[in-house]
Amino acid sequence: MFTGIIETLGEIKAIEKEGGNVHLTITSAITNELKIDQSVAHNGVCLTVTSIENNDYKVTAIQETIDKTNLSDWKIGAAVNLERAMKLGDRLDGHIVQGHVDQTGICKAIKEADGSWYYTFEYDPNLNNLTIEKGSITVNGVSLTVVNSMKNEFSVAIIPYTYEHTNFHDFVVGTKVNLEFDVIGKYVSKLYSNK
Q: Which residues neighbour 31 within 8 Å (Cβ) at sequence distance 6 or greater?
């Protein structure tokens, strides 16, 4: 479980394909605090640390993960948002995030608003995910509040701190992002659709 509060940015140092799997080598400021078998969210994708060497660590993504996320677009040198799993007893500053990406979305618009930014994302409605205004959404692992919910698209407002300390500052119109919809909303939607 995660909260969607990004701890730091990591940099992709290497990408190796092996069959249907992809092994990623990441360098980060928190590498020395990681342990093998630990879960870390990378742009919202929960991946397990498989090895650690100096400031670098490795994780492996299976085909299922590659198919449901924007991981196939990752490049060497790219910045990824990192968050370690939450500890029991810590404050839940974001919202309940599982690290299980539901689908990808596309950045449709970016608007500067006198020191903050509004980002609009669209997503495939055929997967029955939904947003509501003032509800929670995770974009590339960042816990955010929906400020405008429309049919198969939504907007979020980004403060300067989030802009500077996540990879939101790298987004352009057309950027593919990982989306994890609010877990409570997913259960309610599923219960409603089964009636």
A: 52, 54, 55, 56, 57
Q: The dihedral of CA 154, 158, 163, 166: what is its sign?
A: negative
Task: Please check whether residue 30 is in contact with residue 8, taking contact to mean a CB–CB distance below 8 angstroms.
Answer: yes
* CA dist., res. 25 & res. 191, Å (int): 40
What is d(CA 178, CA 66) in angstroms, rounded to the nearest whole number? 11
Sign of the Cα torsion 38, 41, 47, 51 reads: negative
Q: How far is CA 1 from CA 33, 41, 78, 97, in A?
A: 18, 9, 25, 6
CA gap 146, 135 in Å, rounded: 5
- For 155-177, write each residue's pLDDT tens digit: 999 999 999 999 999 999 999 99
Residues 6 or more apart whose CB falls under 8 angstroms from that of 40 comprise 34, 46, 47, 48, 49, 59, 82, 83, 84, 85
Instruction: Report whether pLDDT(41) > 90.
Output: yes
pTM (2 decimals)? 0.91
Beta strands (DSSP E) in 124-190 are 136-139, 142-150, 153-158, 176-181
Name the maximum alpha-carbon separation found in the chain: 54
